[in-house]
Design goal:
Elements (H helix, E strand, L loop, with lengths): L16 E7 L4 E6 L4 E6 L4 E7 L8 E6 L6 E6 L2 E6 L7 E4 L2 E5 L2 H6 L6 E2 L5 E2 L1
Parallel strand pairs: 4-8
Antiparallel strand pairs: 1-2, 2-3, 3-4, 5-6, 6-7, 7-9, 10-11
C-alpha cells in the first residue's frame, strides 16, 4: 500500500478559501478566496499557482464560487455576493492579474439586502444550483 502524502499547494494565506473544483481534463484545481475577491488555479503538473482579483468596481464584492462553463474554453461563471457573472481566464495569462466580470444576473436591491450567494454547483445536465 502506498503512503499518502499531504502538502500545501501554496505558501500564500487565504482569508476564506472555498468552492474547490477539480478539472480532470487539464489537471487543475480552481477555488475562491471569498473575502478577498480572488480566484485561484493550481496546475498539478507544473505546481504553478495562477491568481486573479475580480474587479468589482469598488463595491468590495466577495467571490463565492467559480465553475467552468462546459464547451466554452477559458470561460467561468462566478458568484459575486448577490449577482452572477462570467469571466474569461486563460492559463496563458499572467499569474497575477485583475479580471473584469461580465454581469449575467443580479438580485434586486431589496433581495440583495437579505440574500447573498454562498456556493454553487452544476448537475450533469448543465443546470447551475445556487
Amino acid at each position: 500500500m502506498s503512503e499518502i502524502k499531504i502538502r500545501a499547494i501554496s505558501e500564500d494565506g487565504y482569508n476564506l478559501g472555498e468552492g474547490p473544483h477539480w478539472n480532470e481534463e487539464d489537471q487543475t484545481l480552481i477555488f475562491v478566496d471569498i473575502l478577498h475577491g480572488n480566484i485561484h488555479r493550481y496546475f498539478l503538473q507544473t505546481q504553478r499557482m495562477q491568481n486573479a482579483h475580480i474587479d468589482d468596481g469598488g463595491t468590495e464584492t466577495s467571490v463565492s464560487f467559480i465553475i467552468p462553463v462546459e464547451g466554452a474554453k477559458d470561460t467561468f461563471v462566478i458568484g459575486l455576493r448577490s449577482s452572477v457573472a462570467l469571466i474569461k481566464w486563460s492559463p496563458t495569462e499572467p499569474d497575477n492579474q485583475i479580471i473584469k466580470p461580465i454581469p449575467l444576473l443580479a438580485l434586486d436591491s431589496t433581495q440583495a439586502q437579505r440574500v447573498k450567494f454562498n456556493d454553487a454547483k452544476c448537475d450533469n445536465k448543465g443546470r447551475l444550483y445556487l
